[in-house]
């Protein structure tokens, strides 16, 4: 638990032989609250930074000093560590924050969060070098810090300290204190270390369960946790959730979605694990490829959207669900599409869905019960034939498809009011693209039927009903109106530069692999000892990844003749000429790696020679049989199943100078594959000279 981690952490001071760069510390200030619940210690820490001798000489320092403030809150059971540099504070600003807290659903788990920022204003012309040194030191400290905590936890256990009881207020004077069980020390700090309650489990990251739970009840979820955060589950549904979560823990190292998110995909597929797993994996890859996790931080709606997009959040409904109001009848969908483009509208809708998930979590904490979906109130007053403009309907259908695939079971209820006569036409067009489970959540009111009993008041408090629907609540949702034609884009300007394209603004590339048509990319290396790094996800099918070297420059060719159709190939390029002989014209420098559907692969290779390095993905098939053995039945069936299908993948690669590899921020990004908003933990990996590793 977190309090034992705080005890272990304090053992690092005043010196820590386990961390050689930590030379010592001095307490500058120490204080405790009157009730003893909060203990604050501020220290000056002396560090020996692993920097070149020349840089130290230019800077005129041998060591650096940091100010560290540790705050232990025994009442809330948290430990917060804040640090900033004292040396060169006018040139470099380093801020780091760490926090330990007790997991809200399981007191034997500890949540750990860590963040850091580096701002280099100036450093004698060595700004780039200092940044690399800082990144190298930081990543090293992350790994070493975890090892040190584990070391001192074991030391506490060896001393018989395996449980720290909850903090209790001090006994009032004159009252007799109850004797704490198994208390064996006199001081208050020692009393906190007393008792025995079995071994603890460490969990770094946010509120995700450990990858390998050691509890004998790991195949069950805590009943209070289910009731508080997930809602009612049958034993079968609980079992499906645990099985899918365990599969993710085994295959998607360090990027496990929260239980609420996994549960949405299970419900969308009626708790069919195979179908839910396929849907979830596709969605996770989609989020990674298009950087959806960062959309709330990166997306700023154009002023045109703020004025003419008639939608916005508005309190919550009677069940505590966040309420989103969309005045679709007042929205000039044709004008918005012509002025902004389909991509900007899609990006805006995605940001709304991300915000909706965030608000659901906030309401769950606010109301003390699981809120996993939101309510949408759609006002169709003003809907007319203009809204049936074909490109506008096409854009709407595409948005519905993307939302249905990646945000299942997030819509709790859809209230449609003031539906005009033209609505059945629109409904006929869009309803086939809406999941049956979602359609069952639609409530449609024509005319003024939404007023009075049986109408909106059954689902939304009267005090929250907006004024334009006869309620008393002022609503800030824009009224919309026609977008001026002067703001329309020209044919030569399909997308304004300010409106970043969601589907193309990504560091990842997509590719298709067909039988007999591998996808290949070439990297030219001008000097040896460079580092090629790669990161790719297999979206569909199984492929074999290989890396080759050639002194000859390959020629690009697109596979056409042997494909079922040229359009099916997608992004597919072949570079290795059929006349080339392996071992003569080119050589293999990495062993073939079989990559299964849904796997995420990261790796690197330190080049030995200049020349052309070819990264190849080809469709995986059964190994050729020897003359004395028959093919396996499984191989034959697998060959038949994939022969008419193509494999799909997304990939990213970069080339780094060897001297910069381990300290480069870019290389760290290549080695990590996380989902910040969905993931309970992040993972960092160090690469050997030539390596590939999986986070399936």
Question: Key terms for this structure?
Answer:
about 25% strand, Phosphatidylinositol Transfer Protein Sec14p, disordered C terminus, CRAL/TRIO_N_dom_sf, Alpha-D-Glucose-1,6-Bisphosphate, Chain A, domain 4, Helicase, Ruva Protein, domain 3, six-stranded antiparallel β-sheet, GOLD_dom_sf, single chain, about 700 residues, alpha+beta
Explain what this protein looks like in three dimensions.
- The protein has 696 residues and is an alpha+beta fold.
- It has four domains: 1-159, Alpha-D-Glucose-1,6-Bisphosphate, Chain A, domain 4; 223-290, N-terminal domain of phosphatidylinositol transfer protein sec14p (Helicase, Ruva Protein, domain 3), CATH 1.10.8.20; 300-487, Phosphatidylinositol Transfer Protein Sec14p (3-Layer(aba) Sandwich); 508-554 and 576-621 and 645-664, GOLD domain (Jelly Rolls), CATH 2.60.120.
- The chain is 28% helix and 24% strand.
- The protein has 17 helices and 20 strands.
- It has helices spanning 2-10, 53-59, 127-158, 188-192, 223-230, 235-251, 259-268, 273-289, 295-298, 303-308, 333-340, 342-367, 390-406, 423-430, 436-439, 633-642, 665-671; strands at residues 22-32, 38-47, 64-73, 78-85, 92-102, 110-120, 311-316, 322-326, 374-379, 411-419, 442-446, 509-513, 519-525, 530-540, 543-550, 587-595, 600-606, 611-619, 647-657, 690-694.
- The strands form four sheets. The chain has a six-stranded antiparallel beta sheet with strand order 1-2-3-4-5-6, with helices on one face. A five-stranded mixed beta sheet has the order 7-8-9-10-11, covered by helices on one side. Strands 12-19-14-17-20 form a five-stranded antiparallel beta sheet, covered by helices on one side.
- Strand 5 and strand 6 (110-120) form a beta hairpin.
- Helix 6 (235-251) crosses helix 7, helix 7 (259-268) crosses helix 8 (273-289) and helix 12 (342-367) packs parallel to helix 13.
- The radius of gyration is 30 Å and the shape is globular.
- 30% of the residues are buried.
- Residues 174-218, 494-505, 560-569, 623-644 and 660-696 have low confidence and may be disordered.
- This is SEC14 like lipid binding 5.
- Residues 1-161 form the PRELI/MSF1 domain.
């Amino acid at each position: 638990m977190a309090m034992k981690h705080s005890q272990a952490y304090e053992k690092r001071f005043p010196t820590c032989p386990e961390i050689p760069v930590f030379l010592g510390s001095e307490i500058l200030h120490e204080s405790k609250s009157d009730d003893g619940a909060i203990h604050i210690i501020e220290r000056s820490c002396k560090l020996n930074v692993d920097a070149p001798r020349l840089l130290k000489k230019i800077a005129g320092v041998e060591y650096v000093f940091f100010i560290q403030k540790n705050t232990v809150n025994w009442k809330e059971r948290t430990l917060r560590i804040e640090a900033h540099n004292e040396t060169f504070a006018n040139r470099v600003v380093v801020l780091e924050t760490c926090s330990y807290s007790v997991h809200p659903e399981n007191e034997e788990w500890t949540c750990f969060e860590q963040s850091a920022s580096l701002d280099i204003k100036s450093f004698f012309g060595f700004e780039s070098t200092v940044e690399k040194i800082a990144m190298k030191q930081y990543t090293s400290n992350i790994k070493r810090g975890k090892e040190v905590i584990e070391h001192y936890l074991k030391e506490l256990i060896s001393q018989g300290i395996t449980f720290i009881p909850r903090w209790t207020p001090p006994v009032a004077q004159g009252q007799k204190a109850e004797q704490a069980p198994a208390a064996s020390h006199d001081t208050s700090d020692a009393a906190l270390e007393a008792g025995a309650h079995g071994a603890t489990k460490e969990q770094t990251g946010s509120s995700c369960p450990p990858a390998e739970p050691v509890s004998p009840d790991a195949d069950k979820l805590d009943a209070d946790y289910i009731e508080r955060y997930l809602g009612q589950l049958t034993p079968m549904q609980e079992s499906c959730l645990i099985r899918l979560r365990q599969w993710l823990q085994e295959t998607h190292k360090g990027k496990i979605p929260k239980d609420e998110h996994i549960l949405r995909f299970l419900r969308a597929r009626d708790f069919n694990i195979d179908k839910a797993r396929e849907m979830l994996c596709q969605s996770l890859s989609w989020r990674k490829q298009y950087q959806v996790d960062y959309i709330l931080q990166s997306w700023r709606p154009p002023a045109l959207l703020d004025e003419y997009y008639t939608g916005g959040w508005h309190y919550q409904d009677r069940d505590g669900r966040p309420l989103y109001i969309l005045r679709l009848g007042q929205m000039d969908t044709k004008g918005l599409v012509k002025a902004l483009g389909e991509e900007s509208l899609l990006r805006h809708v995605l940001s709304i869905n991300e915000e909706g998930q965030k608000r659901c979590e906030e309401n769950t904490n606010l109301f003390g019960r699981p809120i996993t979906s939101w309510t949408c109130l759609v006002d169709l007053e003003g809907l007319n034939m203009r809204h049936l403009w074909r490109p506008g309907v096409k854009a709407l259908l595409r948005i519905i498809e993307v939302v249905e695939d990646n945000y299942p079971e997030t819509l709790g209820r859809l209230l449609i009011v003031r539906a005009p006569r033209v609505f059945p036409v629109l409904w006929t067009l869009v309803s086939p693209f809406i999941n049956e489970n979602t359609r069952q959540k639609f409530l449609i009111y024509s005319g003024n039927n939404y007023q009075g009993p049986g109408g909106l008041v059954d689902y939304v408090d009267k005090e929250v009903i907006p004024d334009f629907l006869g309620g008393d609540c002022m609503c800030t949702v824009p009224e919309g109106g026609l977008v001026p034609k002067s703001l329309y884009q020209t044919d030569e300007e399909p997308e304004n530069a300010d409106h970043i394209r969601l589907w193309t603004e990504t560091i990842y590339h997509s590719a298709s692999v067909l039988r007999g048509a591998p996808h290949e990319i070439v990297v030219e290396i001008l000097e040896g000892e460079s580092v090629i790094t790669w990161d790719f996800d297999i979206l569909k099918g199984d492929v074999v990844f290989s890396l080759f070297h050639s002194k000859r420059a390959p020629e690009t060719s697109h596979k056409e003749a042997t494909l079922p159709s040229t359009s099916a190939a997608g992004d597919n390029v072949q570079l290795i000429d059929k006349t080339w002989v392996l071992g003569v014209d080119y050589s293999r420098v990495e062993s073939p790696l079989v990559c299964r559907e849904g796997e995420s692969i990261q790796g690197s290779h330190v080049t030995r020679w200049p020349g052309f390095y070819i990264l190849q993905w080809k469709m995986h098939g059964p190994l050729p049989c020897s003359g004395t053995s028959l093919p396996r039945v499984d191989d034959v069936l697998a060959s038949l199943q994939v022969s008419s299908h193509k494999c799909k993948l997304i990939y990213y690669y970069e080339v780094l100078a060897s001297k910069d590899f381990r300290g480069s921020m870019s290389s760290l990004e290549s080695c990590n594959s996380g989902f910040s908003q969905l993931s309970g933990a992040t993972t960092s990996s160090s690469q050997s000279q030539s390596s590939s590793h999986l986070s399936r």
